[in-house]
Amino acid sequence: STDDPGSTGHEQVVFCQDTQSGLKAIIGIYSTALGPALGGTRCYPYASEEAALADVLDLSRGMAYKNALAGLDLGGGKAVIWGDPDQVKSEALLRAYGRFVQSLAGRYYTACDVGTVVADMDVIARETRYVTGRSVEHGGAGDSSVLTAWGVFQGMRAAVEHVWGTPSLRGRRVGVAGLGKVGRHLTGHLVDDGAEVVATDVDPRALEWARTNHPGVTLVADASALVAADIDVYAPCALGGALNDDTVPALRARVVAGAANNQLAHPGIEKLLADRGVLYAPDYVVNAGGVIQVADEIEGFNFDRAKLRATRIYDTTRQILRLADDEGVPPAVAADRLAERRMADVGRLRTIH
Ligand code: NAI
Ligand code: K
């Protein structure tokens, strides 16, 4: 129980080992209050078992909050496979891992994360039915960046409305850092809505994509040039830690809403953003379109149904920003409170498992 100060609040933590394939994995189930725990499998060369455990505890808790706010009937879980994905991943290892997932009998559903790809989920699925994010050929939902970008766009509209009174992006200057899978779809939505997009990427192929598909997009040298540019909205769509002690003081945007996970480099950044009058739409709220997409696959993927759910990220973001104002807390704290309320309220009503 969370009343115990020594406890992390997790329901279950499972250590998995298969010596033959070299599998070492940890599955963390934070909460099944809203339904089976859903969260991806990360494959990463952790320095130690302690580091792997710390990561899975943190990530599985985060998924409980994310899934709750996404309006899913799913709890929060996550798994880590300890090792370099290029070296450790094999059919034998993934199938051994799949058997551990199956042994949890539906308390945990897995999906892709850093170090695992859709093809890995197809292999895992040969041992367990509790896996999602599979390939289209296997009945899966396919690339989740489509609805991730749609959800980010919806969250951005809510944040823009909160600051300027209208959700329209027409005439707004939006800085997109990272023209990868999500950044490209997002750029499309922004251009369609009449925004002026300023963007950057470290990969020349991404810049070429922009020049070819959206010649109206202004390209800048790097992320620091983007942060310092005259933009209204900043959309981090590359790596974590985009909001840090260097970028926030230089930031000219009044709104931050982007796809990247873990945008805040450390907890103090929230206050720095607030002090500078920057409205931060919490990353895990606005980037939930991806998990919404893979969650939908559990019922048999229906794109329109999933898109409708991702569209509601607009309403959720609005609600969170208002709650933050009412309760005088940063949006990330308001988001956590809303998630906790749903887990407590609905978790109490749930009778079927
Ligand atoms: P991606 O790997 O397709 O795209 C990332 C892009 O960022 C690449 O084009 C890369 O060259 C660029 N990049 C890397 N470092 C950069 C830097 N320092 N400056 C500028 N550009 C840089 O990844 P994807 O799928 O588009 O995801 C983007 C972010 O959104 C990641 O943080 C990911 O964790 C997060 N996210 C993605 C979801 C999805 O469904 N794809 C779901 C939820 C979150
Ligand atoms: K719990």
Would you kindly provide a written description of the structure presented here, covering whatever features stand out?
By secondary structure, the chain is an alpha/beta fold. It has 2 domains: 12-66 and 74-134, Leucine Dehydrogenase, chain A, domain 1 (Rossmann fold); 145-288 and 317-338, NAD(P)-binding Rossmann-like Domain (Rossmann fold), CATH 3.40.50.720. The protein has 15 helices and 12 strands. It has helices spanning 49-69, 85-88, 91-103, 118-124, 145-164, 181-192, 204-213, 223-228, 247-250, 269-275, 283-286, 289-298, 303-311, 313-327, 331-349; strands at residues 12-18, 23-31, 37-38, 41-44, 75-82, 108-109, 173-177, 196-200, 218-219, 233-236, 255-256, 279-280. Helix 5 (145-164) packs across helix 6. The radius of gyration is 20 Å and the shape is globular. The structure holds 1,4-dihydronicotinamide adenine dinucleotide and potassium ion. Residues 9, 11, 30-31 line the site of potassium ion.
What are the segments in which pLDDT stays under 50 over at least 5 consecutive residues?
Answer: none
Helical percent range? 40-55%
Q: Any idea what the radius of gyration is? A: 20 Å
Q: How many DSSP-defined strands? A: 12
Listed once per kind, the bound small molecules are:
1,4-dihydronicotinamide adenine dinucleotide, potassium ion
Give the strand content: 5-15%
Distance between the termini: 20 Å
Sheet with the most strands? 6 strands, mixed
Elements, N to C (H/E):
EEEEHEHHEHHEHEHEHEHEHEHHHHH
Mean of all residue-level pLDDT scores: 95
Which CATH first-tier class of the largest domain would you pick?
A: Alpha Beta
Choose one word for the global shape: globular
- Classified in CATH, the superfamily of the largest domain is NAD(P)-binding Rossmann-like Domain
**The CATH topology of the largest domain, please?**
Rossmann fold
For the record, the count of structural domains works out to 2
The count of helical stretches stands at 15
CATH architecture assignment of the largest domain: 3-Layer(aba) Sandwich
* Helix/strand/pairing category: alpha/beta
